[in-house]
Write a structure and sequence with these properties.
303 residues, mainly beta, 2 domains, six-stranded antiparallel beta sheet, 1 helix
């Protein structure tokens, strides 16, 4: 499968508590990801096309499909697998994001939840027709998702009609970023950011065209952002209160120290009960890669 990663960047490791953003698709493929572990994070799976069967070590066995949020909270340890629902390659497209858990939750018990009904708000038009936002995680414009969160955060799908410009409300004290899923979109921006990202400061003027492979970092101190589209667009907004700590992120683990990562890797390789066993799986599993020959350090932002 082809996967494109937009976050983390070398200079931008987090946006709020969001620490990872992958897009797998659109493509025709057969997904077969055997059991593998996670610590210290929540996985947010937001599908656009196709179906994937999710199974995990807390007993979940669900089909991931368009319109439903699938949220897995690892706490101190969880394992899961992701398989296509059929035996043949099929159309598939989704975003998979990670949220770093704060100190108060990252050592807790694992959990999984699926939400098929999520709230929507209207995006007020500047020109043309109103847009719409589905609030996947956290809160936007005074409306909150039912999904469980542990830091002030937002993850929302934005839909902009053709020929329209809409105003998206933002929390002024939070940082935010945008990525296009489909179509064309432009926002006010001027300052170039790290590779794969663009940074925008409050008060900048001008328009920049967005695409599906670059993350636009909006920074903080914004009450809103105006997004326009000539032919219609779908975007994903992520943001939140700047995270409480720098993190160590390696393979499928989010921690705070090199030693934590080493301990988790050794536990997985030893078949520890820390990660449980994925429902209906035998001994198949993804082995942990070798650790690098250097000490893992915390990721520090430079923007």
């Amino acid at each position: 499968m082809e996967v494109h990663r937009s976050l983390p960047q070398r200079d931008l490791p987090l946006v709020g508590a969001w620490c990872f953003l992958d897009r797998f698709g659109p493509q025709v493929a057969r997904m077969r990801v055997d059991p593998h572990p996670h610590i210290g994070l929540q996985t947010v799976t937001w599908p656009y096309q196709g179906e994937v069967r999710h199974r995990d070590s807390v007993g979940s066995d669900v089909v991931v499909r368009r319109g439903a949020l699938n949220l897995m909270t690892s706490g101190a340890g969880i394992s899961h697998s992701e398989y296509s629902t059929g035996e043949d390659a099929a159309a598939i497209d989704a975003l998979q994001l990670w949220v770093a858990l704060p100190e108060s939750r990252r050592h807790g018990a694992p959990a999984f939840e699926q939400h098929a009904v999520l709230p929507e708000i209207e995006l007020v038009p500047v020109t043309g027709d109103p847009g719409a936002a589905t609030i996947v995680l956290g809160a936007l414009g005074g409306t909150a998702s039912p999904a469980t969160t542990y830091t002030p955060i937002v993850g929302a799908e934005l839909r902009i009609p053709a020929g329209s410009s809409v105003r998206v409300p933002l929390e002024r004290a939070w940082e935010h970023a945008l990525i296009v899923v489909a179509g064309d979109a432009a926002v006010a921006v001027s300052t170039a950011g790290p590779e794969g990202a663009a940074s925008v400061s409050s008060g900048d003027d001008g328009d920049v065209d967005l695409d599906t492979t670059h993350l636009l970092y909006l920074g903080i101190h914004r009450d809103d952002v105006v997004i326009s589209s000539a032919n219609g667009a779908t975007l994903f907004l992520l943001g939140g209160e700047p995270f409480e700590d720098d993190i160590v992120m390696w393979w499928n683990f989010v921690g705070r120290t090199h030693e934590e990562i080493v301990e988790a890797r050794e536990a997985w390789e030893a078949g520890s009960e820390r990660f449980g066993r994925v429902i209906d799986h035998g001994d198949e599993r993804i082995p942990a890669p070798p650790l690098p020959a250097v000490r893992l350090t915390r990721r520090r932002r430079r923007v």
